[in-house]
Every structure is written in structure tokens, then in C-alpha cells.
Amino acid sequence: MLEAMHQRKGLQFVLALLAGMAFGFLLQKGGVTEYDVITGQLLLKDFTVVKVMLSAVIVGSLGIHMLRSLGLARLHPKPGSLGSSALGGLVFGVGFATLGYCPGTVAGAVGSGALDALFGGVVGILLGAGLFSRAYTGMSQGVMLKSDFGDRTIPEALGVNPWVVVLPACVLLAAILWLLESAGY
Length: 185
Prior knowledge:
Strand order of the largest sheet: 1-2
Helix content: over 70%
Oligomer: single chain
């Protein structure tokens, strides 16, 4: 079934569009597309964003690994390195702190009519992607390869069944969520 769907690019586009619209709607309804909520998170005063993200990681981790266990999904990890992670984190962090939106929340904010997200966020993303693509060839030989860790997942690196990592990680994240809620954040 999934192989047949993989061959139908038009269907994939429609499903991706619908999933993206649902994602943006839920981000907006969850309040994480609001500038004050996002800056409140950056100032460690409002933990709505962390709670939404932790919930998504728990549900996504359990869901994808359940589908994988049933043979309905495969992981396609991309190679990475400490250098590329540090550079990407730096660029993401500067953009996030400057504008107050990440790529997901900027799309949700644009959908709800935020002009700062449209002109600052979307234009910034397009300019940043263009600059990165121009500089990629030079960077891919230098900083991007520093401390290369390949395309292995954490369970593969540890040589264990994925559930040995996924279940404790999800329990830990659920405990963090519970602690945040208990503390009134």
C-alpha cells in the first residue's frame, strides 16, 4: 500500500498540503504562533512551546516506531556531523531570537495574518536558504564535516533495539512535561 502511494506524486502533494494545513491550524490553536508566547519561551517565562514540542516528540516517536515495528514505515536518517549541527543551530537560533518565530510557527503565523511573519520570516527563510545553497559547496568540505557521525540512529550506534531507547526517552519527556505542569509553567 505504501509503495503504491509512494509512486503517486500528486497524492503525496495533496496529503502533504493537508497535513501542513492541519499542523499550522493546530500550532495556531495551541497558541505557539503568537509572538508573546514564543518570546516568553525564550525568556523562560512561558513554557507553552516546550510543552507542545515535547508532546509532539513523544507522539511522533511512539507512532513512527510503532509503524516501523509493524513494517509500515522505514527510517531514512540523513548523515550528520557536530559541525553541521552547530552551524544549523546557530543560524536557527539567531533567526528565532531575532524574529521570534521558527519555520513551523512562522508558517502558522502567516496563515493567521501576521505580516511580520510573512515579510520577516518567509523572506528571511528564502534569503537564508539561498545564501546557504550558494555557500554549501565550500562549507561541505570544511565545517560541515567536523566530527561526522554518519547516518546512524542512536539505537544503531548503541547496537540495541530501538524500543530500548524510545520508551525510556518518552517516559523521561513525559516526566518533564508533568514537572512543568506541576510547577505551573
